[in-house]
Write the structure tokens for this entry.
Amino acid sequence: MSTTYFQKPENALKRAEELIGVGQKSAALDVLETVIKPKRHRTWTATLEDILKKFLSLCTEARETKRAKEGLIQYRQIAQNASQGPESILKVVTSFIGDGERAVREAEEKAGLGAEAVASLQDLEADETPETMMLSVLTCDLSDTGRADRDNYVRWLRFLWESYRTCLEVLKNNQKLEELYADTAKKTFAFCVNYKRKVEFRRLKELLKTHLNMSQISQFSAQTESGLRLRLEIRAAQLNAATQLELWQLAFESAEDLHNVLSHPSNRKAQKSKVMMNYYDKLAQVFWVSENYLFHACAMQRIFHLSERQLNREVSKGDMTKEQAQAQLRSLASKVLLGAVSVPPPAIKQQDVDFDPEKDKQIRMAALVGHNNVPQRRSILSDVVAKNMNTSAYPELVDLFNVLEGDFDPLHLGEQMKPMFAFVEKSEELKKYLHPLKKVVLLKLIQQLSQVYVTMRIADFAKLADFMSLHDCEKFIVEAVAKNQAVVRLDHKNGTLNLGDKGLESENCRSQLANFAKGLQFTLDIIQKDLKEQMRSQKVEALKQLAERLEDERKMMSSRRMQIEERKETLEREMHLKAMEEDRKRKQEEEERRTYEEKRKEEDKRRREEAKLQQEREEKELAEKKRLKEQVDALKAEEKKGKGKKDAAVIDALGKSVEELDDDELKNIDKNALIKAKKRARREA
């Protein structure tokens, strides 16, 4: 890196142009970096914008994504507070991304390859290993030049991906740069879709989710309408890209993210019909691929209602004729009708479980399609009938609802459905509903036959269900029994189909017994009219007696209520007294504990004072002994000098010689007598 610093940015730009002119682009890049990174150039100028554009252009040519990211971060800090700063950052980032996209297009044209050529690459960020290099040489039939062009194309794709990520990192969580951030995110989604980059799409989704989590909740709630609109556009583009890449799990998560943005209280104005129709359309695709036909039908219902309102507005404005609007509604009504009847009927016996892990998931999916509770098949079909969707569909499908849900004709059900099957199979927009529709028809056939027959030959059943192969019928029967949707058994030994449950506790037996009891009661009412009158009179008499006892019952209930209130008051009083007693005991224990603590502290204080006094006494005694020792030493010295009368005087005063005295005797001697003896000894001398 160059160590030359320029006082004026213009001089650095001029020097960089000179170095570029002589082919020293690396040195020019270092010169421009000396202007961007140091803190001396912290005021935005138009020259600084030109310097950064040239710097990013050189980084693009050298594929230096790291240095480009550092330069963009430094420039953002300089320009974001300037009046023309956001506009300048927009120009710089647009130019940087445009250079990368242009380089990718040139490399693609030079290599003569398309987006499909790099679809086999698992990860653009993964380094090329020796094994992958050898494999590419052995399996690729390109010449050396073609292989070099392909590798160059891949490197430019990798650089463009890193450029997108760099720009998103630089522009994140900045209200002044939200427009540019949204445009860059949408361009990145388009990049993933065009080049079939599924791994990069997953990383992009996590990156955007991280940016959203990093933003403050209060800041998000205080967003302007434009900011919320941009967030909505980003989530919508993410959902579209996930469905185009057929990443259905990520598409479902993207739909949840978009639903969270749509549910924001400040975002109600952003819920345009086109946005919501696109949201429900992608959601319907996700549910269809996951074979969740119930919520697919709910999403299609939402699309129909939104389309109906929008088409009515366009017809009223004159933008569309009424016939065109009816044709579109007929197509949508047919899809809703087929989607609703394709929903499998619920299980015959619902199992009571304390914890159902699927329930929470279904509640989440219901919220995505605008339902507070989990919808049921019958409610969807009721809405179809209430909105006249069954009669608004194609003429070939008008009788579909009545044949499946209204009529009871198991022997002719298959024949009645064959023309509808043929119509659905020929229609490009409806043929995807053919297979689930056949399953529902077969299940309806089995359920209707089980109400009439107990045993049926498999050959006869195959004739009634000739719209499916016998193998597919047997396979579906096994699945229906496993899901508890039908009670049927295949007996290949006897070649029969055993329908219904022979147990007395089955639903059919119980309903038959109930119907039989109702019929008997109706017949009895017709035959014995006197008995009916007698029962009516008994009922009137019972009601009269009940009215007479009503006041007594009311008094008894009032008395009972008063007793309950008294018991409640007594219980509350006892609880209050108990709480007061516990509080008194607690306060008493605290008082005793406090008194004990004070006594303990006083005792400790007394012990410390006594220990201190004892120590002082011992120190005084030690000082006294030291002084006596010094006196004794002085006397001994005097004894050595004058052995005569002085010794006698001392002995007379002490009663013994100094050598014969012990410590206690030394401590108890009379100092005044000793002093007098010493004086007397001196006079006599």
Observations:
- The chain is about 75% helix and 0% strand.
